[in-house]
Design brief:
The protein has 260 residues and is mainly beta. The protein folds into 2 domains: 106 residues, At1g16640 B3 domain; 109 residues, DNA-binding pseudobarrel domain (At1g16640 B3 domain, Beta Barrel). The chain contains 4 helices and 18 strands. The strands form 3 sheets. The protein has a 9-stranded mixed β-sheet. Strands 3-8-9-5-6-7-4 form a 7-stranded mixed β-sheet. Strands 1-2 form a two-stranded antiparallel sheet. The two termini are 20 Å apart. It is found in: Nucleus. Pfam families: B3. GO terms for molecular function: DNA binding. One of its GO terms (cellular component) is nucleus.
C-alpha cells in the first residue's frame, strides 16, 4: 500500500510501508503477527520495542517486539492496546510505518467508517502503559494531553504518566545544540538540584548529557550535540524522552526518535 500526495507539480506517490489487520473476537489477544513480507521494511531499524500511535486521538502505546524464526510479533503491551481501544468487533486496522519502529494506526469500524474517538480512553489522557513493579521496557502507559510552550515559542507535549513511575515527554527538535525539558515535567519528575542525564537509544547505547537550569527551565546542553550526531537527529525530528530511573546523582532516560 502507498500514500498518494498532491503538490504543486502534480501527484507524487510516496512509498509509505503499510499493512492492515482485522481484529475479530476470535483473534488471539496475546500478540499480533507482523506480515512476513513487511519484515524487509523494519529489519534495518529493528529494536526490542515499537511505538504505536493512534492517529484519531494522538495516543501512544509502547509494545515489546519478539522475533521467532522468520516471524515478528507485537507481544507484551498489545493486549493493553486492544483493551484500551475496545477492539475485537471486526475492526479494520491500518498500520503505517513512520520509521524507527514507530507505527501510526487508523481504526475503521466494521461499518467501514473511520473511528474518530477511542471509547476505552478517558478524555484528558494521551496513552497508556500498564503499571508493573518489574516493568519490562515498552509496556503501555497513560499520559496527559496538556500542551506547554517554551519561551522561544517551541511547543512540546508533556506526557504525564498517571499510573506508573515511568513518565515521558515529547519534543520537536528545533535546535541541534540543546533541548528544553518541559517545565511541568521537570517540576514533577526531576531532582531539584541535579542535572546529569544518561540518555539511552532504542539499541541500548548510552551517552552522558549535562543539563543547566535557567529560571524554571532545564536545558539538555553539554553532550546533547554528540548524542544527536551519533543518532542522526535532524531539525524537525520528534524525540520521545521516557524516564527510566532517577537518583540524587543521575537521571536515566530512553529516547525514541521519530524521523521527520
Amino acid at each position: 500500500m502507498a500514500r498518494v500526495v498532491f503538490n504543486n507539480g502534480g501527484m507524487d506517490e510516496q512509498k509509505v510501508p503499510t499493512f492492515f489487520k482485522i481484529i475479530k473476537s476470535s483473534s488471539n489477544t496475546d500478540y499480533l503477527r507482523i506480515p512476513p513480507e513487511f519484515r524487509k521494511h523494519i529489519l534495518n531499524e529493528l529494536s526490542m520495542r515499537a511505538v504505536l500511535t493512534l492517529t484519531s486521538v494522538d495516543c501512544s502505546w509502547t509494545v515489546r517486539v519478539r522475533e521467532i524464526g522468520r516471524y515478528m510479533y507485537l507481544k507484551e503491551g498489545w493486549q493493553e492496546f486492544l483493551r484500551d481501544n475496545s477492539l475485537g468487533d471486526s475492526e479494520f486496522l491500518v498500520f503505517r510505518y513512520d520509521g524507527n519502529m514507530c507505527f501510526s494506526i487508523d481504526i475503521f469500524e466494521k461499518s467501514g467508517c473511520k473511528r474518530t474517538e477511542s471509547p476505552g480512553i478517558r478524555r484528558h489522557q494521551r496513552s497508556t502503559f500498564s503499571n508493573n513493579t518489574k516493568r519490562p521496557r515498552g509496556r503501555p502507559r497513560k499520559y496527559s494531553n496538556a500542551a506547554e510552550h517554551t519561551p522561544n515559542g517551541e511547543s512540546s507535549i508533556p506526557f504525564e504518566h498517571t499510573e506508573s513511575k515511568f513518565p515521558a515527554f515529547k519534543k520537536t527538535i528545533t535546535l541541534l545544540y540543546a533541548v528544553d525539558v518541559p517545565t511541568l515535567f521537570s517540576r514533577r519528575h526531576l531532582p531539584p538540584d541535579n542535572y546529569k542525564f544518561i540518555l539511552e537509544n532504542t539499541d541500548g547505547e548510552t551517552w552522558q548529557v549535562n543539563g543547566t537550569r535557567s529560571n524554571d527551565t532545564i536545558k539538555l546542553c553539554s553532550g546533547w550535540v554528540t548524542f544527536a550526531r551519533c543518532n542522526g537527529i535532524e531539525l524537525g525530528d520528534v524525540c520521545l524522552f521516557e524516564l527510566q530511573s532517577k537518583s540524587n546523582t543521575v537521571v536515566h532516560m530512553v529516547v525514541h526518535i521519530i524521523r521527520n
